[in-house]
Amino acid sequence: MKEKTTTDLGKDPLGKLLLKLAIPAILAQLVNMLYNIVDRIYIGHIPEEGALALTGIGLCFPVLMLVMAFSCLIGMGGAPRAAIYMGKGENEKAQKILGNCVTVLIVISILLTAAFLLFGESLLYLFGASEDTIGYALPYMRIYVCGTIFVQFALGLNSFITTQGFATISMATVIIGAALNIILDPVFIYACHMGVRGAALATILSQAVSALWVVGFLGGKKTKLKIRRKDLPIKKEYILPVMALGVSPFVMQSTESLINISFNTSLSKYGGDMAVGAMTILTSVMQLVWMPLSGLTQGAQPIISFNYGAGNQERVKKTFRMLICSALGFSLVMGGIVMLFPQVFVSIFNKNSKELVDISVWAMRIFMVGTLILGIQSACQQTFLALGQAKISLFLACLRKIILMIPLIFILPHFFENKVFGVFLAEPVSDIIAVIVTGTTFFFAFPRILEQSGASS
Are 257 and 65 in contact (CB under 8 A)? Predict the structure, then answer.
């Protein structure tokens, strides 16, 4: 833990500062993505049953997303609040926020674990499971939810490490767990003949190690914000503003569950298990674009939040300009590569089922069109969040997923003879409309937010 502790978010050169914070955050997101993707890669290549097994664990995706959504509610709501207080020099309030977040994460973990164990099977059938796939989905889900507390701590509290400028420590949180997961997956899945159960067990054990790392650092000597017993009792003046700000990332993440359920039920109806399996591959590849974007915006968040709290308008503007140029450039390049070579990305997950491969390849080119400009959406929405603009960020999150995408999943198939094509088309249509609205909103709102804050240039 030899992280440099002299990072000055208010004075260090912005280009180097953004690189210093964003690169570890991007790497952390890429490695974090391996938790689920590595499971799918190994499961998808199980001889004879790989295609159905891949579909089965894909049906658990809404559960995984909901668990992570609650960690975003607290972590991504609490970390910017803490950074803003630190920018104002009110470190004691930032400490209180961290303590309250720890307690709420524990409570949430208990409630989620109980709910999914009691109602998990019924939910999976609701999500689009069939008699052929439930035998893979249910064992995976039951084991995974037993590690909910580890996911909440590893993801939710890691934001408090990033927001202090300890980007390398934050990255190590994810790398440690993901590396362990990569090692344990083949051992449990193949050597121990545990199949999907082994994949789930490898994941929760890896998350447990990550959680211990986070708690150990936040309870240690190097952290600026420390977990203290006296800060654990929940106080509404601290936790309610955290949850208000965290609603936006919570909606963004939890609606991934609703979207995945909507896609799976529609695809199951029009295309069967292989169409649902293709959706598992598409969402995995989409993460290759979205997760690095998320890491980039997370790297910029502490800089924007700190300087906004300190009243430094010019640094906020410059940071955003660098952020949106980087985000858009990445989404254009990565989205283009995926659309040009879809078969390469599909083969990562399955090569043996011709039916699954064929539907995944043609669907990929449709599904990924909107990702070409997704960098604008990511940069603008995260900047609103970093500025404490919970209502605007929440609206934009709801627009893309709830207002646009979910209705389109059920409406568009009625306009095409190929119903499966209509379902997949919902993704790019909603992405493009959302980017236009988000960019326009930011263009008009951003100057007013800085002006109203009383920031000085």
Answer: yes
